[in-house]
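Appendix B.2, paired examples.
Example (i):
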Amino acid sequence: MEPLHSLLDRFEAARRPGGFGYAHHHHHDGGSHDHHLVIGAIIHGDEVGSLPAVVSLIEALNTGTKHYGGRLTIFLGNPEASAADRRFLDADLNRVFIDEPPPCHEGHRARELKPMLDAADVFVDLHQTILDTDRAFYIFPFDEPGWQWARAIGAASTWVTRAPTASFSSGTCCSDEYVRLRGKPGLTLELGPKGFHLHAEQRATTALDKLLAVSDAVATGPNTLASIASDAPELDFVHTTWSQPFDNPRMRLIDGLTNFQQVTEGQQLSAADTPPIHAPHSGLLLFPKYPGYSSDGTAIEPRPGEIARIVQPLSGHPSDVWARELNS
């Protein structure tokens, strides 16, 4: 795979700045309609797998080998953390899109990115998981526009969703949540495990090509987003049914747990001679955490807010399960 520094150099060489005061972004205006797509990449610095796809897309639009009639903004969220091979430098960028971001590198970056997110008609944030996963998946709260875009794009068949009013983490705000709070669709797509690999590049390329095609079709008619979505396969909806707070610094999981691994009720998830953690019911494990540990056996701070969660299939379609919230 092409090295990180080469991809960042290609991005800088190809990018055409728009009217936003942020260095690491590209803006395209196809001149046929005003629908504005915004794409986020490497908001987490170690999740670099989407870079080959976004750089190639920019180059193809510049040379005319690919076409999009609307407006498109692509930004790199935290290339400084990428260069350091870290998830972030001071604070998790994807938690600080709050009213008053903290006075640090990522807080300053959130302030720079907000104008682009404010201008988005649709925002798609490309991420990767820390550990292995057997699939790509969407993860964001349910709303009808987001559902239609996710289904129409078809980049994943699984959607880890939650009630429309439920935040991912109390007191924080993710980039996609920031956009949804402004009444526009904000989607997060997990491409697979972090790092450069062919599956991530292919999934990102397919998702971005379809996103542009759907936007063109909806903006120029006669197709509607609803009709395009209805012609695509329905998604499989799962939701979190249990999460274990990381409330003891000596908590540690057994080695080898991965995303979407089947677990059974009562299964031990904790390593030997550490605070016990058992699965309260069967389901699929998601986001198991393996932070670094000090010589005294305590997790190195800042430790994550949770150490693992379990997801299960939703009892029905989200539009029925959460009908009251959607109609309120």
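Example (ii):
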Amino acid sequence: MKVIIQENYDKMCEWAANHIIKAINGHKENRPFVLGLPTGSSPIGVYRRLVAANKAGKVTFKNVVTFNMDEYVGLPREHDQSYWYFMHDNLFDHIDIPAENVNILNGMAEDLEAECAAYEEKIASYGGIDLFMGGIGVDGHLAFNEPYTSLSSRTGLRDLTSDTIIVNSRFFDHDPSKVPTRALSVGIGTVTDSRQVLVLISGHNKARALAATVEGGVSQKWTCSALQLHNDAIIACDEAACGELTVDTYKYFLDVYGSERL
């Protein structure tokens, strides 16, 4: 595992965007580059930089296929808090990706289990995901894989915990009753099957989750800890998120990867 520590959120996002751009531009295989993407607050700064780079001609998404992590059940895509809306508003409407290359789970599907199975099959049809970017919750959940979700889980229906509903209520007029209680989500196994995983962790409120991801044991309690078993996992974080790391761990990653600080 690599932990790239940046001074603040903006520099973390700049590093992550540059990493994604290099990965896309360096893709030489005779097939699309397959990119997994998250929603939430963490990636917004990355998306802004990807949009700017695309407009400046530094990267094209014409040969990129995307798969999003999750979607609420019961929200139509036109709802301003659906993840379909979020992704188009923050990224897809502003870059040159073909519409048919965008894949987002349909939380309004008549058969939710069939929707999830088809999603896994479509990922496999492209040969898997090359790079999956994600963020984690304060309890370490990756996508909507709440604590005690199987670390080998695949895309499926998830019940959201009260904590997640309360945290996400900030997007729903701070009213937890407006937050959907279920979502469709890729599984931990879906994410860790990717060739590379890049997870963004920023802010003091994520410090405990970062420590669990890097220093804790592998456990269903912290689904983020599954990244310890991945051959090519990268954590991009800011200084604020490092508050619970031991001094030795913090110094180790600065010593080994400090040259990547912006």
